[in-house]
């Protein structure tokens, strides 16, 4: 049997039966769909190298089927079968991406032409399939959905999402603002069986108590002054999908009680309503708070914590993911240069030095904002240090003056952290940095050049010792500086590092402290 499956989509039984027999005799595996909608469903469920689609058929005609295939990015080569009166439409289908068309009636001459077309179409499909597989492998080295990162920790995160996503368990994501918690939640949803259902995101810190309660549970007509119509809440609208509750620890205690009941019973009651409404949802929540402190101070109910943290992901800050910083910066540069019509192609060494040595208290969001501003302000083809360094940081007055190094950190890692942070604290003054470090200026420049040269290519940001590039323990800093990024919404391209995944049982204890990644480095 020849390689490649063929789908015949036509409502005329004589044509489907005749073509099936002829093509089966040629050695092809052939399936039949009697209308366009069924053809679309079969193409979405299985892989076909070629589809022979009648231009005029019920529910979905050949042209509409072709547009659906392109819109859903379903790979196949489409050959349109058309009557004499619809040649113009067939030509239009060719413009839309059809491989070719054959006119009815299908006499011996046209059948021979079809037999000659199909191997060429299958060959084109096979080549494009290989290209798609190659592109997917290359993309997989640095991207996972909307997440970006090529470090070992990021690849571990992708594995964890793959493991967690198919389950029905609630997930609690921990991490500083700007680390990409919403992107992780989105990835979990898209990799789950709920991917076709809605993804409904709510920021609990951004909404007043009354509005948040209404958004979650909805209301009946007349429930309060001005409620002239009934309104379903997020639990109803997201039924069959996922609700993402960002900054869940900011939710008021009385709403936490209602949320706990909804999670336990899978039933909600609208404000002002008497009827219990059954819902089918999965909760993914996130917070940047110290959970031990939040539970001790009554900001987060302990029983709600257990319900939310069936699986827990801890996302370290960007400063502990040195290996991904240059990759993110270059991706942001490409995006914003295109958006703003700027011919900016890269970073000068001094700008890249700042990017790799800055502490990034606002994480990926701060990096993204800095690169966007630099692209807009750049006057040449490359971004300079003057473009990228914010005014408040010029001179190094507000940069962190301490480095925290955990016991067990390698000497090479400790040296790299000390060198980079010192260089950042002097505002990029190599002479002053070398004096503070007690080394010769040429040696300092040589080490910086080595770090900059390896920054975009090493796997996981490994330094000269081959380590994974994550600074264990990071730098001891507080929150973002005045004028820094806002602490609420997640960045659109942020990519957190994987941390721990823990299964929680009813007998589990709340965290003894704000957890860090447990992965041995």
Fill in the keyword field for this structure.
single chain, about 525 residues, alpha/beta, Rossmann fold, Helicase, Ruva Protein, domain 3, 6-stranded mixed beta sheet, 5-stranded parallel beta sheet, 19 helices
Number of helices: 19
Please identify the oligomeric state.
Answer: single chain
In whole angstroms, the N-to-C terminal distance is 52 Å
Please identify, by name, the CATH architecture of the largest domain.
Answer: 3-Layer(aba) Sandwich
Number of domain modules: 3
Q: Structural class, please? A: alpha/beta
Sheet of most strands: 6 strands, mixed
Instruction: Note the overall shape.
Output: globular
Order of strands side by side in the largest beta sheet? 9-12-15-8-16-19
Low-confidence stretches: 454-509, 512-521
For the secondary structure, the number of strands is 19
Query: How much is the average pLDDT?
Result: 80
Rg (C-alpha, Å): 29 Å
User: CATH superfamily assignment of the largest domain?
Assistant: P-loop containing nucleotide triphosphate hydrolases
In percent, how much strand structure appears in the residues? Answer: 5-15%
CATH topology of the largest domain: Rossmann fold
Write a structural description.
This protein is α/β, with parallel strands linked by helices and 521 residues long. It has 3 domains: 5-138, Rossmann fold (3-Layer(aba) Sandwich); 148-316, P-loop containing nucleotide triphosphate hydrolases (Rossmann fold, 3-Layer(aba) Sandwich); 322-461, Helicase, Ruva Protein, domain 3 (Orthogonal Bundle). It contains 19 helices and 19 strands. The chain has helices at 13-25, 36-45, 62-71, 87-95, 108-140, 152-164, 181-190, 209-217, 234-237, 253-265, 291-296, 302-308, 322-340, 349-357, 363-377, 385-388, 411-425, 430-437, 441-454; strands spanning 5-9, 29-33, 50-54, 77-82, 100-103, 143-144, 147-148, 171-175, 199-203, 218-219, 231-232, 242-246, 267-268, 277-278, 282-287, 311-315, 346-347, 382-383, 501-503. Strands 9-12-15-8-16-19 form a 6-stranded mixed sheet. Helix 13 (322-340) packs across helix 15 (363-377) and helix 17 packs across helix 18 (430-437). It is globular, with a radius of gyration of 29 Å. The two termini are 52 Å apart.
């Amino acid at each position: 049997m020849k390689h490649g499956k063929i789908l015949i989509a036509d409502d005329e039984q004589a044509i489907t039966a005749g073509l099936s027999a002829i093509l089966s005799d040629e050695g092809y595996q052939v399936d039949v769909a009697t209308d366009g909608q069924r053809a679309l469903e079969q193409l979405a469920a299985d892989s076909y190298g070629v589809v022979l689609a009648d231009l005029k058929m019920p529910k979905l005609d050949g042209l509409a089927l072709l547009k659906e295939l392109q819109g859903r990015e379903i790979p196949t080569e489409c050959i349109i079968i058309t009557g004499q009166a619809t040649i113009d439409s067939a030509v239009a289908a060719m413009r839309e991406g059809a491989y070719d068309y054959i006119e009815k009636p299908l006499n011996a001459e046209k059948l021979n032409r079809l037999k000659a077309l199909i191997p060429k179409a299958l060959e084109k499909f096979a080549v494009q399939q290989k290209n798609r597989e190659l592109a997917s492998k290359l993309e997989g080295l640095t991207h996972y959905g909307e997440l970006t990162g090529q470090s070992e920790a990021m690849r571990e995160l992708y594995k964890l999402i793959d493991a967690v996503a198919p389950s029905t368990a609630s997930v609690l994501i921990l991490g500083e603002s700007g680390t990409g918690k919403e992107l992780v939640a989105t990835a979990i949803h898209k990799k789950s069986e709920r991917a076709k259902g809605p993804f409904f995101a709510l920021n609990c810190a951004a909404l007043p108590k009354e509005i948040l309660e209404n958004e979650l549970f909805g209301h009946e007509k007349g429930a309060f002054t001005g409620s002239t119509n009934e309104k379903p809440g997020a639990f109803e609208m997201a039924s069959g999908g996922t609700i993402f509750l960002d900054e869940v620890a900011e939710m008021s205690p009385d709403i936490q009680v209602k949320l706990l009941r909804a999670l336990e019973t899978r039933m909600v009651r609208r404000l002002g309503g008497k009827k219990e409404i059954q819902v089918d949802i999965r909760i993914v929540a996130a917070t940047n708070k110290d959970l031990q402190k939040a539970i001790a101070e009554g900001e987060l109910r302990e029983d709600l914590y257990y319900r939310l943290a069936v699986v827990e992901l801890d996302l370290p800050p960007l400063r502990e993911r040195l290996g991904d910083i240059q990759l993110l910066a270059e991706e942001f540069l490409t995006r914003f240069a295109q958006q703003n019509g700027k011919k900016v192609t890269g970073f000068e060494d001094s700008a890249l030095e700042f990017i790799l040595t800055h502490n990034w208290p606002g994480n990926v969001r701060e990096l993204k904002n800095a690169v966007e501003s630099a692209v807009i302000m750049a006057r040449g083809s490359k971004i300079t240090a003057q473009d990228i360094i914010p005014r408040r940081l010029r001179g190094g007055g507000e940069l962190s003056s301490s480095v925290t190094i955990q016991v067990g950190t390698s000497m090479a890692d400790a040296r790299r952290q000390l060198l980079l942070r010192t260089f950042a604290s002097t505002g990029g003054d190599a002479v002053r940095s070398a004096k503070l470090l007690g080394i010769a200026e040429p040696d300092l420049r040589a080490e910086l050049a080595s770090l900059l040269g390896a920054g975009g290519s090493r796997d996981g940001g490994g330094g000269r010792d081959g380590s994974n590039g994550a600074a264990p323990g990071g730098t001891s800093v507080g929150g973002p500086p005045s004028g820094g990024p806002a602490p609420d919404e997640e960045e659109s391209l942020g990519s957190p590092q994987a941390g721990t995944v823990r299964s929680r049982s009813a007998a589990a204890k709340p965290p003894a402290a704000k957890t860090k990644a447990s992965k041995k480095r």
